[in-house]
Amino acid sequence: MSKIRLLIADDHPLVADSLSLLMGSVSTIEVVGIVRNGVQVLDFLEKYEADVVLLDYHMPVMNGVELLARLREKHPRVKTIMLTMNEEATFIKESIQAGVDGFVMKSAEKTELIKAIQVVSSGKKFFGEKVVRKLAEVPDDSSATGRTRVQDIQSLTKREIEIIRLIAEDLESTEIAARLNISPATVDTHRRNLMKKIGVSSAVGLVRWGLKNGVVGET
Amino acid sequence: MSKIRLLIADDHPLVADSLSLLMGSVSTIEVVGIVRNGVQVLDFLEKYEADVVLLDYHMPVMNGVELLARLREKHPRVKTIMLTMNEEATFIKESIQAGVDGFVMKSAEKTELIKAIQVVSSGKKFFGEKVVRKLAEVPDDSSATGRTRVQDIQSLTKREIEIIRLIAEDLESTEIAARLNISPATVDTHRRNLMKKIGVSSAVGLVRWGLKNGVVGET
DNA sequence: GAAAAAATACCGCCTGGGCGGTATTTTTAG
DNA sequence: CTAAAAATACCGCCCAGGCGGTATTTTTTC
């Protein structure tokens, strides 16, 4: 059996190089390339081949989820594993919906990542322990705590995501309205729905939640 | 000459392991341990010895800066290198003031980190290219852009940091005031000073900046 | 011990955000 | 094709937050 050809995509050279060495030390894996953003992944796959791509969610130019869509389209045979610091459910679901084959957190042990690569390359899906636990988060008594439960949160509307992102950019309702060509009143409604869904009572709360859940970009 | 004994502290096993392998592959370096938070660094140094400690800024239990103070006190001979994703000046200055010996960003090349370890272990200070560039950010014409320049930003007061953190926790001025046993008016003044220093015009702006600069915790 | 920086505090103004409700149109899913 | 979900939009209320000043006390630094 030939080795699994692995492509690593991470915008931090130090992390990418280290990871490469770590994975390269596994006898069944061969690191065929290291790139630093989504576009480079596509470029690489134009010229060379890979069985599995290890994707960092946080990448400039083209992030993990955006890339997934294109990969599905152009290179459906290539398997993908999302690697992230973030542990939120929204995040994971977003990736799964985008068609990722595996999901591993950076806080996982190396053995888990190795297993993920092997499982995924064999055509199956792999989701780590912690990942599964996160997804399984029980829809516990939200009326008692007053907090919206994870299940509900995950269902932010496209428009709502746009709105929360613009709010995070510190724009006023009127500005957001102008940019989206809708009425400020509508923006207000969306903001209110968001606050209700998420369970906060101010724009600051929204932004924090957005950051934490990867809905809003870090930079 | 004996090898440089390196201790790695990072809360992400995957990253730490990889880094360990990468650094261990350098002939002049020997990785003597891997720990996942500040407290463990201290524990480790109680029993074993190390020449250089590689610290991740973001660590639970005891973060990089907190740890630096204790290290200076208990193990002044141990050299320290701060490793971070973040590229902001505030951050770097905070570490330098806390007495760090070197500063390298995760977006750096591995050669830079290796060099840092060698330079630092020889008793000198090491600050990477990008780091220096960040610090050197020219005090350019802030009156024209209207933006407060980096130099000014760096000097957030202790109290101001407390305030910005509480603002990020989505508390109202009155709540913050109550918690710090001061008048809401004072909170207001601090908030205003913060906004002026940072160059934003709302709480959302403050929070974003705080997150970006590590003044406000992610979780 | 004097000068500088930080922390404290107040007055007043006004606007945008948060919150109560309601309702129509468009899109999506079954 | 129809019911549900999403997106659109408005009325009105109220107050906390943002902004203009100013000023005193405490702490730090040199």
Write the layout of secondary structure elements.
The structure is a homodimer of 219-residue chains.
Chain A: E1 4-9, H1 13-24, E2 29-35, H2 38-47, E3 52-56, H3 64-74, E4 79-84, H4 89-97, E5 102-105, H5 110-121, E6 126-127, H6 129-135, H7 142-145, H8 150-153, H9 158-168, H10 173-180, H11 184-198, H12 203-212
Parallel strand pairs in A: 1-2, 1-3, 3-4, 4-5, 5-6
Helix pairs in contact in A: 2-3, 9-11, 9-12, 10-11, 11-12
Chain A binds a DNA duplex (30 and 30 nucleotides) through helix 9 and helix 11.
In short:
Two copies of one chain form a homodimer. Chain A is α/β, with parallel strands linked by helices and 219 residues long. Chain A has helices at residues 13-24, 38-47, 64-74, 89-97, 110-121, 129-135, 142-145, 150-153, 158-168, 173-180, 184-198, 203-212; strands at 4-9, 29-35, 52-56, 79-84, 102-105, 126-127.
Can you describe this structure?
Two copies of one chain form a homodimer. By secondary structure, chain A is an alpha/beta fold. The first copy, chain A, is built from twelve helices and six strands. The first copy, chain A, has a six-stranded parallel β-sheet, sandwiched between helices. In chain A, strand 3 (52-56), helix 3 (64-74) and strand 4 form a beta-alpha-beta unit. In chain A, helix 11 (184-198) packs across helix 12. The A-B interface holds A 11-15, 17-19, 21-22, 25, 83, 85, 104, 106-110, 113, 167-168, 170, 200-205, 207-208, 211-212, 218-219 and B 11-15, 17-19, 21-22, 25, 83, 85, 104, 106-110, 113, 167-168, 170, 200-205, 207-208, 211-212, 218-219. Chain A binds a DNA duplex (30 and 30 nucleotides) through residues 157-160, 172-174, 182-186, 188-193, 195, 201-203.
